[in-house]
Amino acid sequence: MSDLPVLVVEDDSDLREAIVDTLMARGLEVLEAADGEVAIEAMGRQPVGMVVTDVQMSPMDGRALLAHIRSHHPELPVVMMTAYGTVERAVEAMRGGATDYLMKPFEAENLVDMVDKHRLKPSAMGGPVAEDPASLRMLELAARVADSEATVLLCGESGTGKEVYARFIHEHSPRAKGPFVAINCAAIPENMLEAVLFGYEKGAFTGAQAAHPGKFEQAQGGTLLLDEISEMDLALQAKLLRVLQEREVERLGGRKTISLDVRVVATTNRDLLASVRAGEFREDLYYRLNVFPVRLPPLRERPGDIVPLAKHLMEHHCRGKRPLPRLSEDSTRALQAHTWPGNIRELDNVVQRALILAPGDEIQAQALHFEAATDGLSSTPGGNGGGVDAAQLPSAGGDIPDGHALDDALKDREYRLIVEALRSEGGSRKHAAARLGISPRTLRYKMARLRDAGVELPRDLGAKLA
Ligand SMILES: Nc1ncnc2c1ncn2[C@@H]1O[C@H](COP(=O)(O)OP(=O)(O)OP(=O)(O)O)[C@@H](O)[C@H]1O
Q1: CA nearest 186: which of 252, 134, 246, 232?
Q2: Does residue 398 belong to any structural domain of this protein?
Q3: What tens digit of pLDDT does each residue of 63-76 get?
Q4: Which of 35, 151, 155, 203 is the right S-S partner for 291, CB 3.0 to 4.6 Å?
Q5: Does residue 430 sit in the same domain as residue 375?
Q6: What's the gap in Å between 25 CA and the centre of ligand 1?
Q7: Ligand 1: nearest atom to the Cα of 344
Q8: Is 203 left (phi over 0), alpha (psi -120 to 50) or beta?
Q9: CA distances in angstroms from 239 to 83, 84, 173, 221, listed in the order given
């Protein structure tokens, strides 16, 4: 999505015009209002990325506007413009929850710096698409917490965008210039995870031919994302807790401790508190990670995002390859009617399939094939059980990747076997793994790899451990 507009609220029309012109000259989208009431109306019509407001206005002044914003959009950045010499006003504004203040008269550069520093920039660096009010609230929250050093725990179903939000938090934090290092705790074999996280010295174990810094060290000065933290075994959880408490790490086989300056963001698609109750996750680690929990709602709870996300994903996949097709009205309706158990990852798969099936300039509903396994059988408009009917493939010149047919067929077979095994064992990973003749860890690993490859496992499966 494009950047959210900056809302300028000022009753002095000359000053308002000057501010608006200054911001527009920098390429920013701007909305204007002459007092608090008009500003609230404008915010009701469309989301904004920041408010710059005067204090003294009528009928509704800046203080009342700020109070309204804090109760309706708690995380929206608000900069108050106060008259020179009224320091008390500035203090009062900050107490009322203003993000910052500008003392009048101010230079154009000060204004621009202030706006650049605080405004929400969802489109920057592939940031989250957020159009639904629920997503905007989440984005505001993420922007607010980004500014702090707090450990963040992002919880949400698989495919809701936890990693996207983790990056957003990093990119909007004072550590943005530092590294962002991600590690998927479920995708690394158990016996390797400790070495990967904490690093090792040469000879620490068979095969350690050279010293290697761990992910914690690699993230120095930046952010470390511990993805799927619930999948870490209890012994390693204890070591992780120690590292987080002491803020220092010791490489495997090493003797010196290395001080850490790393902000940690963790994600989970399981109810971590339930894992604590079940004795699978350490309570002390849970509380250490849960300093600032952010829940990412499933896509079905933010319907206003579905079409903007579909367009964003289409743009992403078409860039440099083909002109962007339109979504027909019936396909828009079908997208909105689906419940998206696999969330945005499922939407991405649907979009990619549609682009293959509809090489023209419009995507019709029959090109939309929803995941077969998500709701048992089919939710495809064409009622084909979710599978792609060969008759619907474009005859020639279609954008079908070649050279991966065997690979895809094997992945497909593996996926089906895993789903079948999980189904027959009522979702128990332990028993499904036994049925497949592999360890539960390997099953978890394969499931994570499938997810990374964009394959969504049915939501009702794969959540139980025993
Ligand atoms: N708000 C968003 N805007 C744009 N793309 C998004 C958004 N949310 C998710 N995506 C895309 O959807 C896919 C899944 O997102 P992501 O990997 O962040 O989900 P997740 O919740 O971390 O999933 P999992 O729990 O399975 O690891 C990615 O391709 C990501 O780029």
Answers
A1: 232
A2: no
A3: 999 999 887 776 68
A4: 151
A5: no
A6: 34
A7: 12
A8: left
A9: 54, 54, 27, 21
Residue from 357, 365, 369 nearest 327 by CA: 365
Query: Are residues 255 and 208 both part of a single domain?
Result: yes
Q: What is the domain extent for residue 30?
A: 6-118
Is the CB of residue 164 below 6 angstroms from any atom belonging to ligand 1?
A: yes
Pocket test for ligand 1, best of 132, 140, 163 (most atoms within 8 A of CB): 163
Residue 143 lies in a domain: yes
In a domain, residue 458? The reply is no
User: Are 33 and 131 found together in one domain?
Assistant: no
Q: Report, as an integer, the average pLDDT of 291-318.
A: 93
Instruction: Indicate whether 366 pLDDT > 60.
Output: yes
User: Whole-angstrom Cα distance, residue 13 to residue 19?
Assistant: 10
3-state secondary structure 235-292: HHHHHHHHHHHHCEEECECCCCEEECCCEEEEEECCCHHHHHHCCCCCHHHHHHHCCE
CA distance 215 to 204: 17
**Ligand 1 and 297: CB distance under 6 A:** no
Ligand 1 atom closest to the CA of 451, numbered from 1: 26
Pocket test for ligand 1, best of 1, 138, 152, 164 (most atoms within 8 A of CB): 164
Query: For ligand 1, what atom is nearest to the CA of residue 296?
Result: 21
Domain at 19, CATH number: 3.40.50.2300
- Cα separation, 269 vs 277, in Å, equals 16
Share of the chain above pLDDT 90, in %: 52
Domain count across the chain: 4
Share of the chain above pLDDT 70, in %: 85
Angle between helices 133-146 and 162-171 (to 10 degrees): 40
The verdict on residue 459 lying in a domain is: no
Distance 239 CA to ligand 1 centre (A): 29
438: exposed, middle or buried (C-beta count within 10 Å: 0-12, 13-18, 19+)? middle
Q: Which residue's CA is minimally distant from atom 10 of ligand 1?
A: 161
Asked if residue 271 and residue 229 are part of one domain, the reply reads: yes
Q: Are residues 278 and 328 in the same domain?
A: no
Nearest Cα residue to atom 8 of ligand 1:
161
Question: 277 near 230, Cβ under 8 Å?
Answer: no
Task: Please give the helix or strand (H or E) that residue 76 lies within, else none.
Answer: none
Model pLDDT for residues 321-359, shown as the tens digit of each residue: 788 899 999 999 999 999 999 999 999 999 999 999 888
